[in-house]
Amino acid sequence: MSEPVLKAEKLDAADDLAPLRDRFLLDDVVYLDGNSLGALPAGVPDRVADVVRRQWGELRIRSWDESGWWTAPERIGDRIAPLVGAAAGQIVVGDSTSVNIFKALVAAVRMAGEDRTEILVDASTFPTDGYIASSVARLTGRTLRAVTPAEVPAALSGRTAAVLLNHVDYRTGRLHDLPSLTAAVHAAGAVAVWDLCHSAGALPVGLDEHGVDLAVGCTYKYLNGGPGAPAYLYVRRSLQDRFDSPLPGWNSHVEPFGMRPEYAPAPGALRGRVGTPDILSMLALEAALEVWDGVSIDAVRAKSLALTDFFLECVAAYVPGGRVESLTPVPHEERGSQVALRCADAGDAMKRLIERGVVGDFRAPDVLRFGFTPLYVGFADAERAARVLGEVLGGA
Amino acid sequence: MSEPVLKAEKLDAADDLAPLRDRFLLDDVVYLDGNSLGALPAGVPDRVADVVRRQWGELRIRSWDESGWWTAPERIGDRIAPLVGAAAGQIVVGDSTSVNIFKALVAAVRMAGEDRTEILVDASTFPTDGYIASSVARLTGRTLRAVTPAEVPAALSGRTAAVLLNHVDYRTGRLHDLPSLTAAVHAAGAVAVWDLCHSAGALPVGLDEHGVDLAVGCTYKYLNGGPGAPAYLYVRRSLQDRFDSPLPGWNSHVEPFGMRPEYAPAPGALRGRVGTPDILSMLALEAALEVWDGVSIDAVRAKSLALTDFFLECVAAYVPGGRVESLTPVPHEERGSQVALRCADAGDAMKRLIERGVVGDFRAPDVLRFGFTPLYVGFADAERAARVLGEVLGGA
Q: Where in this protein does the record say N6-(pyridoxal phosphate)lysine is found (chains A, B) (predicted)?
């Protein structure tokens, strides 16, 4: 056996998280696209069947109380909270990531006050964040400026209302320095809004510890909630009374069944709710989150870094020189849980990888993206992926 | 047997829609709360199980293409279209009703132009519509005025930007005159936005025929899509190029996987999309809509009116005089598919009805609400509900 294969065996044998793979329904595909759609947790199918057949089909309307449907957004928010370093009562689940970015950014601008006229947004952001930020600027009469995260400290001023940043860049996998950027935003008197889509579930976030104001994330990547599972919104406890939502739906009313013509917001995190929550998707997510029982996010982070280190090592061993270039930073403190390789014919290469049982994804125009979900990806997977990539790109 | 019982038997025997009840999973409860949460269509559990186990669990990320996840919002919109009198290509499914009202009303105000400074909203509306309208007014710098639908024609002026109306009042079951109100709104040069939550699936709407501009509806009432199933947005074809969304997420980009920093909206109905759609809830809805195969909405309307007529007749026969007062209009052209009875101790009365197997709902402070879903409610159900109500309220 080759050296990488032997090393993978050793690493897998020493991996305390390896048994967690059994909490998912998987096959022999090497699935490195959990940063786009997480794999199916084993407990989800039966839970969803129960929600459909018994809770909806038999209890029907009674389930809003008896099956806990009404309180699901806050309850599941509290289930996500420890994974992102938040105490209970600050996260609510529901709506898409885009809609939550809209809520968070409008609320942030309102918190900052009238004399703060500029919004800063990560120039390399996932597109939807930029589109929504632009809409928020237009609706609130602010200007929008796109800067790289590195440029943020210099771009901040007394005019800055809010800054929307990504914890991990969706394309390159670069991890941004949330603690120091948040501190810089606060030093300028502005409000920090973080998008956690590519970090939550893969590494410690520390929302409370680092004083993040508002945060948004999706649940279908490293949280394995299922396709289009509802996103979540974090509002720091000390800001909740000032959270002034642009989407004041009846679900966030202090007395939702009072059917009052005047809006009066509920206290706490549920002020971020809007309309009736999508119960099937939401309760699938709740079941999915049970895979985290007893799992330490620090252990997940350690394995994630070991996996991406090892994958890069195997790529260097298997892929002919010059065929790929890693866009993912080498220093651990700058790396999320994915490896992005620039490659001349990336679209075609990914097709051939998938045909051979290695699933990553292609991001136009020239990026091969490989996501490492420590809960179900092992070192042998990383070795095989690099080996097949080497074959596809004409290596040994 | 009593006269109402005999009459119910005759009416059920002559009911061509009676066999449709077999398309649902039901029991011996009289379920008159389908205007809050529709019953479970028989085809949904297996479909959802397939979506979870095979589409998500086995195909995983490939399902966005191979299982048609990506195009579901438009495809399911086209499935709803004939039920509300719309040609294909004008409806997109996704997000909650509240979020869609926000999109529609901001877009309507933008269509109306800068010199149109006032939004009118139904004063008796379901609360969320009013809350969202108020937020739209605040964000777009318009004023908001609440008027009853009857007052709309007199309230319209050259200052009116948009009018948000409910087709059927959620509380009383009153059906408003969509054709003539829409015509009045248009005569004033304003944009008509209709909320169809309590009409779609219960009666013909005729969106295209009556020139409605924008419409929004939920899918978990008479469309039986399941708890919190995604809502839909109708944008009349001739207005689609002018639909300027306040929630321009990446899913409505003309080239969503181009990952471009500048937003460029897609043509057509899918301009109303925002973020990643909640696939489990959405595909449950798609399966649920199959109960409409071969069903005429005119036949549904005829049965709905016959059911509510008969229920009112039975209430008169069984309930002691003066104990309840119907808030639902007697003329057919003013009646939706529910009967609302004002009753002094409505909360307690509904509790006792539910204990005896008759499920309606209570709307504070004093309304008993009974929804009649012609696809699965029969005349014997109406008779039994009225009879039990009579018992509960101390009748014979």
A: 221
